[in-house]
């Protein structure tokens, strides 16, 4: 109906600010969406989402560009997650822990103040319950797909495309295509959709419990970071490695803030972006445009003008060859993303925010293990005779 007319593509009349608000009010009344949390009645919100998305994308780009510039590292959240759950000390475990500690700390602080000040009425985080079946299945598929395809939105889109990786361009196209298709299909048949009414909390005190647990998580996260930092200092680790831990914490904080203020932590917002229907939310286009646009410039400047990273390490090689995993993995990931609305980075940030955050993380880890132990060996061609005895570890292959 006219109440659902999407104003960005309207050719019949030019909407003014007041007519946009009237349009939003009609949508809220006809769909029954809780206006307080969707922010539809706030005139400023209609125009600020794109700015928040641009700013969030800039934070994400700054973190990933600095990580490449300083240490030659690709900020791939699925790779970081897999290193943590397998406790692989050979894959930079300590700096990745500090990165996650830095990523979680400011985000939980933002969550505790998300109903106040500049964040009032802005759905930085998801206030309602996610359908548990969709969340578990989606997380399982995301875990399988990101491990098989060796990358997610951060590894392939934010960091892979700016390095002009053909694999990442194909992977990003595939997971976006299948994510949009599945989210649109599920939206039309209303299968496993999130609930967005505040009454779904049941008890009004539950929200405060989650906010309190988030503050506790801040303390635990900083404690973990302090223990690892102290351990490396006491064991006389080189000063560069110790500084690297501090820098990793800061880069993680930048990345986490970018995810939060851009709306990437809100699975309902992600699904509304992927699902092409009357409630389509285009604001996340600005996240990708900002992060990709900045990284396309900074990554090329870094890789073309520097022989090695500024601080330590070396720049990763760009793998351009196509294989079965880089096709199958992103397809599976896209399907899971379209169902759950979360990928590894935002999923970790929602651990103590989304009521079923633990279920997502456990399913994500299970998907990683299934992919590593079962699916990847099935998709990997047998080694040649001269290479027998060598172990092919796909987790070490850069995108």
Low-confidence stretches: 1-44, 116-123, 196-210, 385-399
Number of strands: 0
Strand/helix succession = HHHHHHHHHHHHHHH
User: What level of helicity do the residues show?
Assistant: 55-70%
Tally the helices.
15
Rg from Cα = 21 Å
Nearest-integer average pLDDT: 76
Strand content: under 5%
State the distance separating the first and last CA atoms.
45 Å
Give the helix/strand class.
mainly alpha
Largest sheet data = none
Task: Name the shape in a single word.
Answer: globular
Layout of helices and strands:
Layout lengths: L16 H15 L3 H4 L4 H29 L5 H10 L6 H20 L19 H17 L4 H6 L7 H24 L15 H30 L4 H24 L4 H8 L9 H22 L18 H17 L3 H6 L7 H23 L20
Helix pairs in contact: 3-10, 3-12, 5-9, 5-10, 6-13, 6-15, 8-11, 8-13, 9-10, 11-13
Description of the structure:
- By secondary structure, the protein is mostly helical.
- The protein contains 15 helices and no strands.
- The protein has helices at 17-31, 35-38, 43-71, 77-86, 93-112, 132-148, 153-158, 166-189, 205-234, 239-262, 267-274, 284-305, 324-340, 344-349, 357-379.
- α3 runs parallel beside α12 and α9 runs antiparallel to α10 (239-262).
- The relative contact order is 0.20.
- Residues 1-44, 116-123, 196-210 and 385-399 have low confidence and may be disordered.
């Amino acid at each position: 109906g006219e109440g659902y007319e999407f104003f960005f593509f309207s050719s019949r009349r030019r909407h003014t600010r007041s007519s946009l608000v009237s349009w939003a009010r009609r949508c809220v009344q006809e769909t029954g969406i809780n206006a307080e949390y969707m922010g539809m009645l706030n005139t400023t919100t209609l125009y600020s989402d794109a700015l928040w998305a641009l700013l969030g994308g800039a934070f994400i780009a700054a973190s990933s560009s600095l990580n490449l510039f300083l240490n030659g590292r690709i900020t791939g959240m699925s790779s970081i997650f897999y290193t943590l759950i397998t406790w692989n000390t050979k894959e930079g475990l300590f700096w990745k822990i500090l990165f996650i500690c830095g990523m979680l700390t400011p985000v939980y602080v933002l969550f505790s103040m998300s109903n106040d000040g500049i964040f009032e009425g802005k759905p930085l985080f998801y206030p309602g319950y996610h359908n548990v079946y969709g969340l578990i299945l989606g997380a399982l598929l995301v875990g399988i797909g990101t491990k098989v395809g060796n990358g997610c939105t951060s590894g392939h889109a934010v960091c892979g495309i700016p390095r002009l990786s053909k694999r990442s361009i194909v992977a990003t196209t595939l997971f976006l295509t299948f994510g949009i298709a599945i989210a649109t299909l599920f939206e039309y048949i209303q299968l496993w959709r999130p609930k967005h009414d505040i009454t779904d909390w049941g008890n009004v005190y539950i929200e405060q419990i989650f906010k309190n647990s988030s503050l506790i998580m801040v303390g635990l996260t900083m404690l973990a970071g302090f223990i690892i930092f102290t351990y490396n200092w006491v064991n006389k680790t080189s000063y560069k490695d110790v500084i690297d831990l501090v820098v990793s914490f800061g880069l993680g904080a930048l990345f986490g803030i970018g995810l939060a203020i851009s709306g990437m932590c809100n699975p309902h917002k992600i699904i509304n972006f992927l699902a092409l229907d009357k409630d389509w939310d285009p604001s996340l286009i600005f996240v990708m445009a900002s992060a990709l646009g900045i990284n396309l410039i900074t990554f090329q400047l870094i890789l073309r003008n520097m022989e090695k990273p500024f601080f330590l390490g070396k720049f990763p090689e760009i793998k351009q060859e196509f294989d079965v995993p880089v096709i199958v993995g992103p397809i599976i990931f896209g399907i899971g993303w379209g169902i759950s609305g979360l990928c590894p980075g935002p999923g970790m940030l929602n651990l103590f925010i989304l009521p079923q955050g633990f279920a997502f993380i456990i399913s994500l880890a299970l998907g990683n293990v299934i992919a590593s132990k079962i699916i990847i060996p099935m998709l990997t061609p047998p080694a040649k005779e001269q290479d027998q005895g060598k172990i092919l570890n796909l987790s070490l292959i850069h995108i």
